[in-house]
Amino acid sequence: MNLGFLLRMALREGRHSLRRVGVYMVSITLGVGALVSIHSFRDDVARSVRDEAETLMGANARVESQRPFPDSVEAVLDSLTSAGVGVARMTMASTMVLAESSGDVRLFQVRGVEGGFPFYGTVRSDPEGAWGGGAGLPDGVALVDPAVLTQLGTSVGDTLVVGNVRVPIQASVDDLPTELGFQAAIGPRVFLSMETLEEAGLLTFGSLANYEAFLRLPDVEDREALRDRYDDRFQRGEVDYTLAEEQAQSLSNAVRFLGRFLGLVGLGALLLGGIGVASAIHVHVRQRRPSVAMLRCVGARQGTVFGIYLLEAAGLGFLGAAAGVLLGVGVQQLLPLALAGALPVEVTPRLSLRSAGAGLGIGVWVAVVFALIPLLELRNVPPLQALRSDVEGSGRRWDPLRLAAYAALAGSVAWLCVLEAGETDVGLAFAGALAVSVILLAGFGWVLVRLTRRLFPSRASYPVRQGVSNLFRPRNQTVAVTLALGFGAFVVGTILQVEGSLLDDLTLSFEGEQPNVLLFDVQPDQVEGIRELLPESARGSLSSAPLVSSRLERINGLGHEELRDRPPGPERPDAWALRREYRNTYRAELGGAEELVAGRWWDGTPGSEDGTEVDAGDLARVSLEEDIADDLAVELGDTITWRVSGVEVVSVVTSLRRVDWERLEPNFFAIFEPGTLDGAPQTMLMVARLEDLEVRARFQRALVGPFPNVSALDFSRVQEAVDDVLARVRQAVAFLALFSAAAGVVVLVGSLASSRAQRVREGALLKTLGARRRQVLVVLFTEYLTLGTLATASGLALAWLAAAWAVPQVFEVPFRSQPLPLVAIWLVVAGLTVVVGMVGSRRVLAQPPLQALRDGAD
Amino acid sequence: MIRAQGLTKTYASGDRSLTVLDGVDLEIEDRSMVAVVGPSGSGKTTLLGLLAGLDRPSAGSVVLDGQPLGELTEDQRAEFRSRKVGFVFQTFHLLPTLTALENVLVPLELQGRGREAVGRAEDLLQRVGLGDRLEHYPSQLSGGEQQRVALARAFANEPRILFADEPTGNLDVDTGATIVAMLEELNRDAETTLVLVTHDLGLAERAHRVVRLSGGRLVEDRAGAGVGVPR
Question: What is the pLDDT at residue B231?
Fold first, then answer.
């Protein structure tokens, strides 16, 4: 085989087919562009995170606990300070903050800062310099996130009431280098000096708080030595010691994970483009049959002909992929600007030859492997077709080469998915899901097309019937376009159905007669006073529950280490369940959101599934929630030893409960029998229902003065935060869905381009036979509307089925059908198809009939 | 040069079989010109295709320049054609994506002769009067000009046998006459054996021999005027 001849012929063929087949290569361009930009940006962020590890933490290492550091850990910190190590502290608590000027009150994070934090990075404030640099925050003032000013309707210079103190707002913190930009929007913060925080009196017994100490230890060996020397003390004190590099690695891993997810979506768009390539090559091959027959007549072998067009496809794929690399590099430059607020570090884009090369290679490979199957048809073009165009080749039913091409295609898709996912099982699962989706879509599309052909009413007017039958013209690409457009509709439709069900589930939880205000950090002697503040109408809805902080020490006499040494399996408790702090309670009755399923309640009521009675002897009886019992590998009759304010309490599990966590009532993992924990140090949790937004706001304002330590959570605010997060997720997903939709549109445009000449001839013939312009328009409009409808019908049907399965299985909430988004998608896709089709068919109406008829074949 | 024995071709048509060619025996001498005539559907094109090795007979055999075609695989036939056979088609069959020069070069490039054969291709195009249209695409040429390019291509690889299927079928009378004259001139110089399928009886009479088909059978085999190609 003369390679030079193949290349020359491929070049000659390619320069003419660029206009027709080239449109499909745009889908390769989009997919490669997505991959290159995602890979490059991911590498940029990971590199920046690695390089700026200290800035991300603001220190070289961090000690962290959810309780005040024990003396043993404080001794370590003191010794480090004495040795000249920089030690800064931050304490975080949540509390109600009142703005005096507006009277608004909200729950915010309050952070006490001491000792020159952050050691690395610059805090930008407005006005500048308010943070204080190495001297720390000044006492008696507050610095706030801009969102605090917005939510409280206040401004710099106004006064905030935080617990027991009144502090003027000295500045807004525009950039704290240690945190992600959008964190401030989710949990706005108020910064005080540590002394001011202590004066505010927020850190009472049982308060939810987080304690951090930041260390400046530039020498990495020192940091590692510190861990080695004090690891045992940190473990026993239940504090976490984290190096800046470790935090950066976690963030890198998260970025990498997100990058992989986005990369899979980009790969999906690229593979969808491959379908477009296969469709284009199929049409191209059919149009080239006379030329191929002639080449065979004058002596070209089957392999020569195949080689010419394979090289042509590879060349066009190369052009498309190269354009995609350029597009990807361009988008990579823009992403840091677009995501500046959300990134923890400043990202400097750097050209990644690896990403560019990989994108180029993958793009060419996808173009070639998808072109293989239609190109194999060329082997069946008999030379006799040069003499008789009606002669067909004898294609073999079970052609080994065709089977090998299918195998190569399937293997390539799986390999690319595994490569992109970074894990074999995830990649194969994605490839499998993609394959199933495509097969089902193609199947749906095929069935719908057949049904349309068979069932379309014969009484419809001629232009309408002609428009529908145009979809079945020879060399039509109806199924390919249905598949490409349908896939986009499927992706978007599934996402909207899932999101709608999740949103419905969250929203319903806050309605009805359920409580909508939660109060925590309430001292027992404050309960009556708070009740008096409630409007008369709401007092009936008020309920309260004691909270006793406890740590789990032993299960059946075995400590944490012995339990962790068990082999992995249902017998080994989950580490998080062993280590966590429990807020237990005691009460006589079951709550409204729980059901006793096993064992017996204090009064002997048996569980609904198992009424076993456990003899607790002299030990305290405790009822566990069934899922936490699984996590702790605990059954009826097992003993659990708790540490409650330094005192050990041994209990026996005498019942298990099933809790409906969606109901906003005080629900607990562990409930003790009354009389066991009554005397233990405790705070109270209170819930109430206040109908009116203004009434809730007034109540919260009234709380701040007499009860500065009490925090109130208004669930309507939670709903707002949830809506805000979902809106951001929706935006991100919509951006990703655009790739799928764009690939579908490219296939549509290409399909229309490849059949344009046919349409022009058909239109000329109709006009010759007497059709008026309006009638020709109806033919075209009907054709495109039907095409768009068929495409969305198959995609949306599959989307509905996928969501109906995924929502209960994956998210464990009920599926609620969302018809409106489905209608919207149909309108958009069908509308887009009509617009693109009508614009692309202008020539049909414009060209005089005689010219079109004289122009003859393609 | 060409020997066909008992040549038969049957096609399946629905649940019946259709015999297009029925036991045709034919011998064509070297450097002769034979015209194959007959009404539509008589099997002329089928006979041409079988003689050229473009198809396999249902029965019978073809020996072309001493090579039994039945012994060759599809690719071997193609290779044989590239060395020994030229074609002229009714619909020209130029590659629309190639210039006139590139179209003529195709048979040469298939033989691996490539760029050094450009001179020969240019000469041929010069001879058919298209020396100034080398870089034109088929869409830029008239029907007659396209057929002239096709003629040049047919003779590019110096074939031993030339098969022409209705070479003037898509041309007007005057243009057709021009083409016939060129065909005869090129054939004379190249000393090829020419097998010509035509409806044009005037053209047919210019051959040494005229064979007539009817209903798939050879019903007449007579001498023509022979003015087209000297022996």
Answer: 47
Tell if the CB–CB gap between A2 and B97 is shorter than 8 Å. no
| Residue pLDDT, tens place only, A290-335 | 889 988 888 888 889 999 999 998 998 899 999 999 999 998 888 8
Minimal CA–CA distance to A64: which of A55, A75, A73, A52? A73
Q: How far is A858 from chain B (nearest CA, A)?
A: 10
pLDDT in tens, A516-570: 888 888 888 999 999 999 888 888 888 889 999 888 999 999 998 888 888 888 8
The pLDDT score that the predictor gives to residue A749 is 75
Report yes or no: A296 and A382 within 8 Å, Cβ to Cβ.
yes
Q: Are strands A647-659 and A639-644 parallel, antiparallel or unpaired?
A: antiparallel
Q: Which residue of A has its CA nearest to B54?
A: A384
Whether A17 sits inside 8 A of B97 (CB atoms) is yes
CA–CA distances in Å: residue B201 to residues A805, A834, B221:
75, 55, 14
Neighbours of A769 (CB within 10 A): 8
* Predicted local distance difference test score (pLDDT) of residue A858: 34
**For residue A649, what pLDDT is reported?**
93
Rounded to two decimals, the ipTM of the complex is 0.74
Which of A6, A284, A298, A389 should we substitute to test contact with B (largest number of B Cβ atoms within 10 Å)?
Answer: A298
The DSSP code sequence of A663-687 is S-S---SEEEPTTSSTTS--EEEEE
Is residue B16 classed exposed, middle or buried when 0-12, 13-18 and 19+ CB atoms within 10 A define those classes? exposed
Which token pair is B57?
């007979």
Q: Where are the beta strands (DSSP E) in A155-274?
A: 159-162, 165-175, 189-193, 209-216, 240-243
Sheet holding B67-68, edge to edge: B16-28, B2-13, B59-64, B67-68
Using the beta-carbon criterion (under 8 Å), do A302 and B74 form an inter-chain contact?
yes
A523: its two tokens: 């001292």
Q: Write the pLDDT tens digit of every residue in A372-422.
A: 988 988 888 888 887 777 666 666 666 888 889 989 999 998 998 898 888
Residues on chain A touching B79 (C-beta within 8 angstroms): 299, 301
Residue in the structure block whose two tokens are 């952070």: A111
User: What is the least distance, in Å, from the CA of B222 to any CA of chain A?
Assistant: 26
